[in-house]
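Q: How do we represent a protein-ligand complex in a form that can be generated token by token?
A: Start from the inputs.
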Amino acid sequence: MTLPNPAPSHAIRAARTALVRPAVSRPAPELPRVLTGDRPTGPLHLGHYFGSLLNRLRLQSEGAELFIVIPDYQVLTDRDTADQLPFFVEELVVDYLALGLDPERTVIFRHSAVPALNQLLLPFLSLVSVAELHRNPTVKDEIAHSRQAGVSGLMLTYPVHQAADILFCKAGIVPVGQDQLPHLEATRTIARRFNARYGKGGSPVFPVPEALLSAAPLLLGTDGGKMSKSRGNAIALGADEDETARLLRGAKTDADRRICYDPAGRPEVSSLLLLAALCQGRDPHTVAAEIGDAGAGRLKAVVTEAVNEHLRPFRARRAAFAADRAHLRAVLSRGNERAREIADATLAEVNAAMGMA
Ligand code: ATP
Ligand code: MG
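Then emit the structure tokens for the protein with adenosine-5'-triphosphate bound:
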């Protein structure tokens, strides 16, 4: 599988500069820790892949210590019950392993297995105002797509919970999609405020983490909105080739037969072009020029071929990992244990800094 090389955004240039070094196969302690995660609400999709997963793989190969949280509590932010949770959690692990995330170098764990991480929510909640929580644009968007009639406290405090996810291991880099930037900003605020209020002698307790965006920070789904697990508009990484073709045939485009790459003016067509280009390691303008005025049907055929071709080796590996459920559980259990050790130490440090130890 050829991995495309997403360009870093302005927001993460500093973090990237620190990371440009030859690949090594063991953790490099001088690199910042990396934390990211995916809600266990459904299968991972192409938006995850190009938005965050490839950056995780690259950071892993650069020697960074990687933490992947499966935030099971956060499933309940926008629905009443966490349906099929054990299945979705294990399927995420299948995807991670099939992609090449290596449990020897990357800690994969679930929220609910790490009590001290969740306890960090209490001191962190004291550092943000209700008005700030109400202003968060991602929370507003999630509320608009929520399956609940009202807004739960868990939904409103989502960004603070996420700060606990990121700061429990003192992560310095967070590879995410664009929708997560407001949350990351909340984490940065919480880290700064905690350090200012409780850091002794100018020594900060927490780093102020940087977001790492990719060249596809907001891949669109088949309905033209953000591709999301929960919005019925996603192409799962593990989908088969016929399903991929069927979903892409139904993707929203526009009436102009001339295909060109214009993300602002023609977002749906451009997102499809970007998808094909990333799969083929090419420029979206070149892909568009080759299609010319052959229309959306040809565009969709090109994208389908590119996606299926690119994901073929991953999909074969995925089937092999999915067959060994005991291994998936062992990976999680080891990750949970490592995350607990780190969270216990961070909570002890936080309590000491606050005079509560
Ligand atoms: P849900 O609908 O349950 O919220 P989701 O598809 O939005 O699921 P998340 O688990 O919320 O996925 O997000 C996991 C990570 O993937 C986050 O870093 C998020 O920014 C990134 N991501 C999600 N969707 C996209 C997308 N369409 N394009 C780029 N990155 C994405
Ligand atoms: Mg989401």
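The pocket of magnesium ion (ligand 2) is lined by residues 228 (CB under 6 Å). The chain is about 50% helix and 5% strand.
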